[in-house]
Amino acid sequence: MKRALVCGAGGFIGGHLVKRLKSEGYWVMGVDIKDHEYVKTQADEFLKGDLRNQNFVKETFKYAYEEVYQLAADMGGAGYIFTGNYDADIMHNSGIINLNILEYAKSDKIGKIFYSSSACMYPEHNQLDPNNPKCSEDSAYPAAPDSEYGWEKLFSERIFLAFNRQYKLPVRVARFHNIFGPEGTWTGGREKAPAAMCRKVAEAPDNSSIEVWGDGKQTRSFLYIDECLEGVRRFMDSKEFTGPVNIGSEEMVSINQLAQMVMKISGKNLSINNIDGPQGVRGRNSDNKLIREKLNWEPSLPLTEGMTRTYKWINEQVQNSKLKGIK
């Protein structure tokens, strides 16, 4: 039985990854600073602690692992990473976590290690046109991310690849493009656009409006969690390809279009009220040429199907919250 370590197993993607690995017959160690907020972990063993602490990281690596998945990070949606209010924490916390993990992962007890970078590391100047953003993997340099979160992700990519060169550590570096789905953060300020739209629509009375930050013409692509995990697993099974590679959808929509999609899914008659707020770059879309070439695969689930599943789950959370409030 293969052993896998999932760092960030108490989070959205990590929680789903644990379930995916268990379904494939892995023995899984989950690690996070917190328990999963919405589901009981399926990990065979779960250690709760701070990966910024070297002693805790040492305990985490008490076993030999065929595969390590490094998803742990200080992160959130636009309301968290684009305001500038948390930049020092984001860079310090995520940077220390990655350095600590790599120090212990370079031992001969580790097979491959996966690192989840982000599309936020792409240069801002290539994402000014909402209709024609450029996010091919080779467009990363000259570097000019639009946030400190993006700069930290770029730095950490280089650290992982440096450990690959110097210590022969088999690494896999992927750039995630807006992963979404059920069992993720949907309220509190760290939620991302798909979850925020679902929550706003679920909470809105019929014949009212929801708020959308900016003019709503900024564009993004969003990838459903099951598609993300399929890409990650195929990437980890690849022989020599280290990346970086995009794992995202090429189905680009404006934020207003995303809101309208959720309104249609809900069946409510709502309108959009565009207000000032953090937006990030004007346009971003995954470029899947490299993943098609290297893995002979790319995501195919339509956005509306993933959003339908996500809205159903978030609407249930909203209604349950209302019932608890009544009680």
Structure summarized in a few sentences:
By secondary structure, the chain is an alpha/beta fold. It is built from 10 helices and 13 strands.
Highlighted features:
13 strands, UDP-galactose 4-epimerase, domain 1, alpha/beta, 327 residues, 10 helices, Rossmann fold, 2 domains, seven-stranded parallel β-sheet
Your description of this structure?
The protein has 327 residues and is of the alpha/beta class. The protein folds into two domains: 3-179 and 222-247, Rossmann fold (3-Layer(aba) Sandwich), CATH 3.40.50; 182-221 and 251-283 and 302-326, UDP-galactose 4-epimerase, domain 1 (Alpha-Beta Complex), CATH 3.90.25.10. Helix content is 39%, strand content 18%. It has a seven-stranded parallel beta sheet, with helices on both faces. A two-stranded parallel ribbon has the order 7-10. A two-stranded parallel sheet has the order 8-13. The protein is globular.
Q: Class of the largest domain in CATH?
A: Alpha Beta
Q: What would you give as the CATH superfamily of the largest domain?
A: NAD(P)-binding Rossmann-like Domain
Count of DSSP H/I helices: 10
CATH topology of the largest domain: Rossmann fold
In terms of structural class, how would the helical and strand content be classed?
alpha/beta
Q: What's the CATH architecture of the largest domain?
A: 3-Layer(aba) Sandwich
Spans with pLDDT under 50 lasting ≥5 residues? none
Give the topology, please.
Blueprint (H helix, E strand, L loop, with lengths): L2 E5 L4 H12 L3 E6 L12 E4 L5 H7 L4 E6 L7 H4 L5 H19 L4 E9 L29 H20 L3 E6 L2 E2 L12 H11 L5 E5 L5 E3 L1 E2 H13 L7 E3 L4 E3 H12 L4 E5 L13 H7 L7 H24 L1
